[in-house]
Amino acid sequence: MLRALLNQWCKVNLMLQIIIGIVLGVIVGITAPSVGNSVAFLGDFFVKALKSVAPVLVFILVLSAIAQHRAERPTNVKDILVLYLIGTFTAALVAVSACFILKPTLLLTNIEAYDASNAPSGVLLVLKNLLMNLADNPFSAIANANYIGILAWATIVGFALKSAIPSSKKFLSELSDAVSFMVRIVIRLAPFGVFGLVAQTLSTTSFSEFVSTYARLLVVLVGAMLFVALVVNPLIVFIKIRKNPYPLVLTCLAQSGLTAFFTRSSAANIPVNMDLCKKLDLNPDTYSVSIPLGATINMAGAAVTVTVMALAATNTL
After folding, report:
1. How far apart are CA 18 and CA 194, in angstroms?
2. Considering Cα of 156, then 158, then 159, then 165, what sign does the dihedral take?
3. Nearest to residue 142, comparing CAs of 42, 34, 60, 229?
4. Average model confidence (pLDDT) for the chain?
5. Which of 38, 62, 123, 183 has its CA 20 to 30 A from that of 214?
6. How many CA atoms lie within 13 A of 223 on its CB side?
């Protein structure tokens, strides 16, 4: 009986499962807060599982892709870096514009003096920290999810293995497939993880009070993100492919955007994005590097959030 139900559940489309998880999380979080707190571990487990598998996945995929890369296959990484810069700048511009129009504020209570002694004192210190991350021990980089260090070591080892015998490269390919299989198992837990995250959020926060206090801030934050996702990004995609961008954009939002929004972690969403790139039959030489790099530097979501919160604090003061 249980096995039959499990088989039927696995046949349901993953995105439909996630939507069901969101709806049930909202219902449980609002109507039964105690139950919402009890199932919070499901969300924590899902995010931790994603964050745990992501560093290993990135290291193996980047290493394997570089070791097996052939010179005649373009990677387009330069174009992607330019698009990253354009997308990030545009998202920040949208956030600034929204803040000047709606002027969001914060509710600041129990504020203590900020200790700025740990903040970077200049560009040189930032560059020094970047170099230290690049030179991090590979095992430490994987354990601490230092993606700059992971990318650096995976690139070095990958180039070192370009001259390896075919059987070694085949092993790397099979190892990459094995790690990808592990990722797919974790992603199948997404409906339960999202259910736990939503239920926990709504059970620990008075929804009506939260909305009344931060209504304008929520409108600016979510509105700016939706504008970037549904207007700015499709425009960038259209300029590049000269086709209707919305089928691709909506697919990415449905399969990656939802988990990114609820996990609130670029690193946790790396496995989801990798799996989506594979489904879209993209070049692994490209996405195995561009996805972890994009998650490491953070982009549109971070640009919107940091900009809006900084200007909201400024408006408040």
Report:
1. 7
2. positive
3. 60
4. 83
5. 38
6. 16
Domain of residue 279, residue span:
17-105+122-316
Can you list the positions of beta strands (E) in the chain?
A: none
Express each pLDDT in 45-104 by its tens digit: 988 888 888 888 888 888 887 887 776 677 788 888 899 999 999 999 999 999 999 998
Q: Which of 213, 233, 288 has the alpha carbon at shortest distance from 86?
A: 233
Give the pTM: 0.72
Distance CA 13, CA 20 (A): 11
**In terms of Cα–Cα distance, which of 48, 51, 64, 50 is closest to 288?**
64
* Cα Rg, the chain, nearest whole Å: 21
Residue at 85: amino acid letter: L
Whether 115 is in a domain gets the answer no
CATH of the domain at 136: 1.10.3860.10
